[in-house]
Amino acid sequence: MSRIRSGTVPGVGLVHAPFSLLPAHLPEPFWKQACELAPIFNELVDRVSLDGNFLQDSLSKTRQVDDFTSRLLEIHRKMMEINKEENIRLGLHRSDYMLDSETSSLLQIELNTISTSFPGLGPLVSELHRTLINQYGRVLSLEPKRVPGNAASSKFAEALARAWTEFDVDSAIVMMIVQPEERNMYDQYWITKYLKESHGITTLRKTLTQVEAEGHVLPDGTLLVDGKKVAVVYYRAGYTPNDYPSEAEWSARLLIEQSSSVKCPSISYQLVGTKRIQQELANPNVLERFLENKEDIAKLRKCFAGLWSLDDEEIIKTAIEKPELFVLKPQREGGGNNIYGLDLRETLTRLQKEGGDALAAYILMQRIFPKASLAYLVRGGICHEGLVISELGIYGSYLRSKDKVITNDQCGYLMRTKVSSSDEGGVAAGFAVLDSLYLTDKVIHN
Ligand code: ADP
Ligand code: MG
Which fold, 3-305+368-440? Predict the structure, then answer.
């Protein structure tokens, strides 16, 4: 079964990842819509990543008030100055959605471009649900074929393997960047397993601190770590300030960026995934700068919720009056950072009083209200019944070598379910449980 390290549970080394006993229902048209969006978002990320000035300009105010974003931008600027080109570009993304019950529409929560989690454990939950429905489906009136297949881990491994092949050095390895106290290693393990068993590729796990101590770049750009040539750097860390406790980790990040290894993601891809860029892309006529196909643009726009930067006085006023209709988000990843309700009102009022650029550290988002339903959630071996809401994530893989798109696919999904009274959504952060999907014919109406 799926496991994560227990962290603080005394005397216990391992605990199963929390999961729901049966899959969450979703009308099939929304599933199809989300799958169709995956390759369009993949292409968008790639196009935006090539416009260095757009990234720098859009994040220029954020950089003044957010040290973490500022450090990322500093590396990005250095790469722009030396005209660093990434000929082989690999993205392993996950676009997250919630079904808004007010409008009966699928709206994007965010697009993750770094360290997208649970491609390993998500498919195990899909399999568990299919097995349970095979066994008890008659009693429950459920059919196993309505749980879509989920090959996220093998598809991610395949994309990494293809990038390795493009790099074209037989003795090279894939380096997975991990946190020193990694709780989610069994999710990552599946990628390592498929890389070895299906593709014959070795994965080396290293922290950024270790890369700084053991790594260097040869004059031809080759990154050597622990004496091994690195074909692909796959980040499962590096998305939060906690992953850079000292200058050593920033040096490692710069070293990797300067090398010729394929980076998943590059610093540009990571910046495209920031909340501020998400908000900027939702502004009128911005998508048109990056994509030509009008139908694709319309499909993307349809899933955008209301997003605002905080230089708009009018929206700040509305959010202070009706905080329950908004979410305030800083430029952070990994869960537990968003601000809701009365805290949102207080924070906005305080930041407005302080004046200056402090507001630029945040974006405002329309709050999405999914319909709650009853479910059984299993955590720490104990089953709880609760009123829950779900968030659907669709994985996407994108690989490009110079002018050739080698992969641009939807590749599996992750459903996360949480009690409806909880604002946050992360599984590893302790808010949600892993879930899968049960496709229904019905479209909800209010
Ligand atoms: P993070 O990068 O920390 O994952 P997210 O934007 O995904 O940030 O927000 C974390 C969680 O907060 C989501 O998983 C979701 O449960 C909830 N959330 C985020 N945005 C909204 C929104 N607009 N409406 C309702 N819930 C939201
Ligand atoms: Mg998220």
Answer: Rossmann fold (3.40.50)
